[in-house]
Amino acid sequence: MSTVLANQERLRIFGLLSPAYLWLTVAIFLPLSAMLYFSFLSEVPFGDAEWSHTTENYEAFFQTSTYAILLWKSIRLGLIVTLVSVLVGFPCAYVLAKVIKGRSREALFLLVILPFWSNSLVRIFSWAIVLRGNGVLEIGLNAVLPFEVDVNLMFSTPAIVIGLVHSYLPYIILTSYLALQAIDDNLIDAARSMSANKLTILWRIILPLSLPGLLAGAVLIFVPVVGSFMEPRILGGRVGTYFGTVIEDQFVAVYNWPLGAALSFILLAVVLLILAVASPVLRRAQT
Amino acid sequence: MSGTFLARLGKLWLALILFFLYAPIFVMAFMSFNASQYYQLPFEFSLKWYEKLAGNTEIIDAATRSVGIAIITTIIATILGTAASVALFRFEFRGKRFLQVMLFPPIAIPWLITGTAMLIFFFGIGLGRGTPSVIIGHVALALPYVIVVVSARLATFDATLEEAARSMGADGWTVTRRVTLPWISSGIIAGALFAFAVSFDQFVVSYFLSEPGDSTLPVLIYTSIRKGFTPEINAISTIIIVVSMAVMLVAARFSNFGGER
Amino acid sequence: MAEVSVQNITKSFGSLKALNDVTMDFPDGGFFALLGPSGSGKTTLLRTIAGFIFADSGSIRIGDEFVENTPVEKRDIGMMFQNYALFPNMTVADNIGFGLRVRKVGATEEKRRIGEALELVQLGQHGDRKPHQLSGGQRQRVALARAIVTNPRVLLLDEPLSALDKALRVDMQFELKRIQREIGITTVFVTHDQEEALTLSDKIGILRDGKMIQAGPPREVYNNPVDLFTAAFLGEANILSDISGDGADIRTPANLPAGGTLAVRPENITISTSKPGEDAISTCQAVLERRVFAGAMATCILRNNGTDIKVISRDQDIPPNIAEGDQLWLSWPVEKTLSISGS
Question: Start and end of every ABC transmembrane type-1 domain (chain B) (predicted)?
Fold first, then answer.
């Protein structure tokens, strides 16, 4: 009897779970495996092209310094965008979680998070309108400032950074806010009753306790920024060549898919490394 | 907090952030009503870009396709995701933790990698580019969001309600249909809205998977931007941003997202 | 150590008057309770003394210093919070040492005083633990050690025992009192548990709706409550206004202010089957309605002319063989009659 029940239950679990996970397998896990296989091919194995197994796609990465330099450029972009977002977003999250009280807090929080869930491409495009020479920013600044300035940030690294920070800032605000909100106000009161000043409280209570949230947000920003290609293309123009744009080119312009696959996997390795390094702290956040 | 000066400074900072987040969007919306093609000021109100948009069959087709894809994605992802959430919540079994971790890659791996991997795989199995491939990809990206949102709602579900229903003689399916599903319906609606937003706003995966001349709206916008600025793109972008923000606002109401209530 | 004096403190939150002209003295080295129902302003008063809240008017003196404009960081107080508020990211020793490090006492001095404090609360071996590894009672001891390790001028406790279960709470009451005596620190604690207030304190301040209703030694406020609210809040009281009938002889104690209400606490009434003959007692007759056995003590509800009278006494002191519906005699010493001046 019990085995019949157990079998029935097993069948039901299987029936409920398998469609979703089958889909994920077909759409995510098999493609990633296929890409790994592809990265060891000499040619695209479609049609009647000659192809063989090779490691030359990975060798290409190490033979010229071009790819490594671009990867470093992408990592550096990721670090800058993450750092700026943390410095800008954490105080903002703090104000939301600990300074603003009552009903307005929830509304403001939603207002901060909302843009994140709107189309990122369109938001990057909106910056193109603002930042271009003779654009709104320049006209606005010249209307306010007493002297004439010439602002043409368009097609520059700062433009890319601004656009990316705009895209991913809500991430760090969201995760920091959740972590900060979980900190009992009594802890801050207790520290004050022991004569601690604001800096001590920030350094010894608030930062250590919100670190997991802060780090989660930083990872959530760093990972996609390292793989970004659309934002540098639109806002960076000719200076916007990054590791992501090179991968894009392999698939849509140069059609060297095996090389693109190899570069994608190198990027994936970097991403996994970052996640692995961050995971002990992130796991601590769950307990 | 004492130190009202610091508190005031903090609120000012928050206001600046909100300005930073919304200003470009408003500028774009503003410019879509400006007569000048090159965003020249002074502002001269005009609806001509919206009129031109209405006559641009390429954009209209892409928009229709995007909405269609989003609706199909939403239906599939919501059904599959809800079923999986119920199984993950209701049953204890070996490998559950592993299955939960498996939801992570679609969210955490940059879409550039997932998108190119899908392109290779779909070509490998002979499916190639096109709307079916786009839908397969979108559902996979939306599934984890649906599962996370529905599971969060399920976590607030009191399991003794199901036991109570059982004690009154209801069988498993009746319990699910009459007790569990009504409780999580707000979670399912929120999950569906998230799925719609993920698909409708998705650019990267669509970019690699859609066929040239048969692309989704974001892909069309991207190629248009790279060709040069046109105010029609402004107009359609304004419409997109209004639609996606409205969808998320409704989703936030249903999912209790980010608010302790 | 220092005395604390609160004079005419008023504090409003919007239209709500949380504290209304509150005055109370806390002499040096005493143990004081602020007692009242929730929303009475007792916690607001404690947080005003601590310096988390600034009063709209009135003065607060700690020792010789008027502190009403001093923020909490500069008041040199020790405080224990309701949920203990131990820093979860620090060990027990680091929690206790937090205030010492802020005061830059030096590493060796810090270590010595942490050790002393841990000994005082009998947690000598637990310095390296994290708060989540401790039991509720142990956390409470750490919180206490943390509050007193800096030798503050006054110790403030915000419902310090409310998170503990009943048995542990009684243990901790004695422990708290022992430690307070040992270091002789002026201590103010907030509670809504009248038994706790009566057991622990040298003086109780009773608050209601932001007003200080009565302040005095436990025995005084228990026996001479100023109004019905206080009488009922500190324990049960039988109001004697409507007692009548054959043999009813309610005597008024000499100290009763004119126009006041008479009452008697359930544990001061004796039940007998015939009219008691002693002097200096009040008597009346009543019908036994219900008798509830509860171990060593028993509770009887009796009825006189539509008024329920509650009697609590040792089970063996109740006459044997009495049954519900019996007409019985009640008596109590005149000096045990409560004299409630207000209403």
Answer: 63-251
